[in-house]
Predict the structure.
Amino acid sequence: MASECVEVASPVEHTRVPAYARFVGQLATNVAGLFLFALGVVLTVRSGLGLGPWDVLHQGISRHTPLTFGQASQVVGVTVIGIGLLLRVRPGLGAVLNMLLIGFFVDRILAVHAIPAATPYGPAARLVMDASGVLLVGLGSGLYIRASLGAGPRDGLMLGLHRVMGVRVALARAALELTVVVVGFLLGGTVGVGTLVFALGVGPAVECGFRVFGVPSREGRLHHQPPRPVTERTR
């Protein structure tokens, strides 16, 4: 009798995860990513070498108002979301969490004095702390984007400017970063070597975060593909 080929499914059954459980997982992932991001920001602050463009603005605002660094970040986030709405960019849950939690976490970490200032330890220690902060910002970005709850408010504003004004995304982002760093510097925010380190390093750091946490690449593929169901051919 001729042999018969039969496809036999793997005994491992993939149970369907309830929607609420998936959402809780996404929320936890997002919050963890925002905490890492905030921790990175605090490291750049404590290095004393200079901040990223938006944090220069936050620090400058905090020096002229009763707002803390984190509260200034939240106020700027609300303003950015408002401008985005005028440009027909609807904020998602991720944008709201980004606006609220990064500033909250930054203030809490600074308040407990868990990270000492690096200035007394010399230039090398300051540079290591600053670079570590940029790396954590990148890893945090990868993790909260992995949660798929939406982009941050500043990314939404960048895309809104790109769509409404017809300029390239890179040009819209560069114009935003240049504007906020100049305004922040005029308000007394710290600009220095660390600002340059952030500008040059945050892109590679975010790419690293994408690889580590399996965020889809530009080609739409995951860096870490999930395993496929196994089938075997038997007689």
